[in-house]
UniProtKB/TrEMBL annotation:
<dbReference type="Pfam" id="PF00378">
    <property type="entry name" value="ECH_1"/>
</dbReference>
<dbReference type="InterPro" id="IPR001753">
    <property type="entry name" value="Enoyl-CoA_hydra/iso"/>
</dbReference>
<dbReference type="InterPro" id="IPR029045">
    <property type="entry name" value="ClpP/crotonase-like_dom_sf"/>
</dbReference>
<dbReference type="InterPro" id="IPR051053">
    <property type="entry name" value="ECH/Chromodomain_protein"/>
</dbReference>
<protein>
    <submittedName>
        <fullName>Unannotated protein</fullName>
    </submittedName>
</protein>
<comment type="similarity">
    <text>Belongs to the enoyl-CoA hydratase/isomerase family.</text>
</comment>
<dbReference type="InterPro" id="IPR014748">
    <property type="entry name" value="Enoyl-CoA_hydra_C"/>
</dbReference>
Amino acid sequence: MDFQDIIYDVSEGIATITLNRPDKMNAFTGRMMYEIISALDLTDADDNVKAVIFTGAGRAFCAGADLSSGGATFSKGGSDIQTKQGVPRDGGGMVSLRIFNSLKPVIGAINGAAVGVGVTMTLPMDIRVASDSAKFGFVFAKRGILPEACSSYFLPRLVGIQQATEWVFTGRVFSAEEAVNGRLIRSVHSGDELLNVARGIAREIADNTAPVSVALSRQMLWRMMGASHPMDAHAVESRGISARGRSADSKEGVTSFLEKRAAVYPDRVSDGLPDIFPRWEDPEFY
């Protein structure tokens, strides 16, 4: 598949999606939205891909929405996708929901400015690492608009309501040091080290774990953030242990441990995942 606003590369089990408008600081466009979604469709379908890394080309990760339309930038909503309610769907939200539904773990390697949708699209990524030159900003109130990309759901769950409100209400741009102290990112690294750190995390996942177990675990952890009672977790986990305990992966995991060798897990994500979420249905846009 040919991409224009991103670069898609797979090497040694790791897919790297690079936002690729460096002359525009990787500003977000409708084309970029569609290309990110398409790239994640590829990673889900490719059993050779065990983990996904997002990063940006040039000196920015993503400086936010493309403002080339001037004051009319946000007048038509966030995308060209219309709903029966007559409300255009937010393009950043479409990307965030697609990342949320990824069957592969997603790591953000934030190499520079991540502002507006440039930071909110990273919130459903599982692990975020940043360069020491990265800057972050939830600047929506300074543009006369509102948080988007499902960030009103993800941000307070990740950093707590007090930190979320401070960043959103002030709209200020802040440093990687403040981001790590506020638990928005895992760690800060030099620009030269950043991708190696992200790849090291991805490599540890790819080399040592069962892809089906990781895919299910990812869904469990994210979905349980919105659960109303631990019984919801107990019901899902009981179904999951029952299904995976009978799998070829489980047999291989135990046998390889006892034989003190590296495991070779036979189950494939593309063959489908056991249905362990009895009450979970993706809601329709309303």
